[in-house]
Specification:
Length: 174
């Protein structure tokens, strides 16, 4: 009898689910595809908002345009707010900043669920171990496209490192 590969459920979360978390979701999928070898079957990936402000809306236009330059397609994305039950099902919950974490804490008080929440930049190769983990800053209010590109670069390198650590067994979901 064949055994089905275990699927890691990974959820990327930000405030609006129109800039950072959809980009992180697409970037993680992109790195998985590069890895090949059917690895994508081992992961179930999604992204959600802590707010309902953009429910059903597509990704932010500036984020979509910058993402295209990196080969990431966000054209089919729709924003959705996280529900408490959905949160509890995840093996790993990756947030962009501490306010995302606080919002999730108010949704679910379970310690086991809370312990599965990690900041994305914990995995950033440019983060110095032993120093506070910086946020992925919210680019939404910025009028400078350079800010969107910097956020994108952070997300691309951090999601790549996250995947490498998961594959090496250095990060254990669940
Ligand atoms: P995100 O950015 O959390 O990276 O998707 C935001 C998008 C929209 C809003 C806030 C942040 N908003 O207030 O609608």
């Amino acid at each position: 009898m064949s055994t089905l590969p275990q699927r890691h459920k990974i959820l990327f979360v930000c405030l609006g689910n129109i800039c950072r978390s959809p980009l992180a979701e697409a970037a993680f999928r992109f790195h998985l595809k590069k890895l090949g070898g059917g690895k994508a079957r081992h992961y179930q990936i999604a992204s959600r908002a802590t707010s309902g402000w953009n429910e059903g809306h597509g990704a932010d236009g500036r984020t979509v345009r910058c993402a295209l330059q990196a080969g990431l397609d966000l054209s089919k994305h729709q924003s959705h707010q996280i529900k408490s039950a959905e949160l509890a099902e995840q093996d790993l919950i990756i947030v962009m900043d501490e306010s995302n974490r606080a919002a999730l804490h108010s949704l679910n008080a379970n310690t086991s669920v809370r312990n599965r929440i990690r900041l994305l930049r914990e995995f950033d190769p440019e983060h110095q171990p032993g120093t506070p983990v910086p946020p992925v800053p919210d680019p939404w209010t910025s009028s400078d496209l350079q800010v969107f590109l910097e956020v994108q670069a952070m997300i691309l390198r951090s999601t790549e490192a996250l995947l490498q650590q998961l594959e090496a067994g250095r990060v254990k979901p669940g």
